[in-house]
Amino acid sequence: MHSFLTLLPLLASALAARPFLNEPDTGIEDVLGDIAVGTLPPLESIVGLPDFEWAARGYMNTSAYTYYRNGAAGEWSYRNNLEVYNRFRLRPRVLTDITNIESTLPTTILGHNFSAPFFISPCARAGYAHPEAEAGLIRGAAANGILYMPALYAILSIEQIAAAKPANSTQVTFQQVYLDTNNIASQAIFKRAEKAGSKAIIFTVDSAADGNRHRAARYGVGSADSSYSYMTWDVFHTLQNLTSLPIIPKGIMTVEDAQLAVANGAKAIIISNHGGRQLDVFTQVEVYADGGVRYGADVLKLLSLGVKAVGLGRPFMFANAYGQEGVEKAITLLKHEIAIDAGNLGVGDLKKIDPSFVSWTNNNWYS
Ligand SMILES: Cc1cc2nc3c(=O)[nH]c(=O)nc-3n(C[C@H](O)[C@H](O)[C@H](O)COP(=O)(O)O)c2cc1C
Ligand SMILES: *[C@@H]1O[C@H](CO)[C@@H](O)[C@H](O)[C@H]1NC(C)=O
Ligand SMILES: *[C@@H]1O[C@H](CO)[C@@H](O)[C@H](O)[C@H]1NC(C)=O
Ligand SMILES: *[C@@H]1O[C@H](CO)[C@@H](O)[C@H](O)[C@H]1NC(C)=O
Ligand SMILES: *[C@@H]1O[C@H](CO)[C@@H](O)[C@H](O)[C@H]1NC(C)=O
Fold first, then answer.
1. 182 in Cβ contact with 156 (< 8 Å)
2. Residue among 75, 81, 121 to mutate when testing ligand 1 (max atoms within 8 A of CB)
3. Can you give the residue range of the structural domain that contains 214?
4. How many domains does the structure of the chain reveal?
5. For residue 166, which ligand has an atom nearest its CA?
6. CB distance 153 to ligand 1 below 6 Å
7. Disulfide check for 129: which of 15, 146, 310, 321 has CB 3.0–4.6 Å away?
8. 366 is a domain residue
9. What is the rounded end-to-end Cα distance, in angstroms, of the chain?
10. Considering only CA atoms, which of 142, 191, 148, 149 is closest in space to residue 168?
């Protein structure tokens, strides 16, 4: 008994020091482990979104990979984003008719039709993974009817990305921007975005100051947005007055700010992850969310809370190492996972998923 008691603190510290699994083991190393550094495994061998990171890590050089992989400071938020979905267990219902689930994937985002409730989040520098850069992302999105949000700090210009759309395309995009109070410069960007077919402006509001990026700093691949930015709700109004496109704040992380967004007339908001569940704003504006989504079940957990569409950043950036084909495969894989996971959850119509399909008790067994 005595020895057991003295062991307890050790046991506790051993659990606290559990390793973080950036790439959960699903056997990819066993099957593809002998792929030469600097080459990509065949696209057919990719079975899920995390595989793209594994493949791209061996293919991209370390500094380029690190720019995509990096999280802030000790990367606790990065890890939390990947782990948080697993703390909430699904509550599958059985013996319900789910045979038409695939036909319920299409949805609208700000009134525009898309084939699935997920989108490609704005990420800078797609050229680090593929020479065609953002062209692979916009074409992959077009071919599969999903929403792409081009980043302002893309490798290609707003016009080049638009030119990469299929001929005579009516593809809808939402242009991401970082803006300051220079109205003339902002207005010019809005005009370019509108001309390029953007139907909304994604205004990133969560980077008022430079990102604290330790991992990236070692390779000199820090943030593209490195100044202190003057951003307030007054600035939001000033900017909204410069364009007829709706301006959507991206990076809302608290209930207070979500309510302020509604009060200030935002038509939609993008939150980063689960943090804001149970917001009553869900009935007042469209809510999109991103951060750490890697599996169909992650998407379902966000949709169950009332999120209208879910964004993914890194998985698409890594998939783009294969160019358009990789992006298309990522979309196809995720659509399939959403459909089969919803089926096994007993959800016959994705529009009818609700919070009762998830146990909202925090199952944080390793804390
Ligand atoms: C390489 C990279 C570049 C990014 N660049 C931008 C950007 O320019 N503007 C922006 O609003 N968000 C940017 N993001 C954040 C994404 O839009 C998105 O919120 C995030 O990637 C979602 O998390 P996930 O990568 O786990 O899916 C970037 C993310 C990554 C990984
Ligand atoms: C969007 O989808 C709806 C319902 O399927 C359809 O009636 C409408 O014409 C579509 N809109 C566009 C612009 O394609
Ligand atoms: C890494 O790859 C990127 C993208 O191809 C390239 O721009 C960069 O120069 C490379 N860096 C090194 C150190 O090889
Ligand atoms: C695309 O538009 C051009 C000019 O508007 C037209 O000449 C051409 O036939 C169109 N192509 C297709 C495939 O619709
Ligand atoms: C925006 O435009 C509205 C209507 O024209 C006006 O009432 C308001 O003062 C303007 N706000 C700013 C911040 O420019």
1. no
2. 121
3. 2-36+45-357
4. 1
5. 4
6. yes
7. 321
8. no
9. 25
10. 142
